[in-house]
Amino acid sequence: MVGACYMQAFLEQGHSLVGLCELQPNAAVADAVQAAGAQVHAAPGAWLAEADVVVSAVFGTVARSLFEACLPHLRDGVVYVDMTTADPQEMRECGELARRVAQGRAVHFVDVAITGAVNLGGSKTPLLVAGGKAGFVQELFLPLGGSVRVVGGQPGDAAALKLLRSIYTKGAEALAVECLVTAQQMGLREQLHAVLQDIDETPLRTLMESMVRTHIPHSARRRNEVAEARQQMARNGLAPIALTAVEALFADTARAHAAQPFTGTSTDEAIDWLGRHVLASRP
Question: Taking the model in full, what pTM does it have?
Answer without folding.
Answer: 0.85
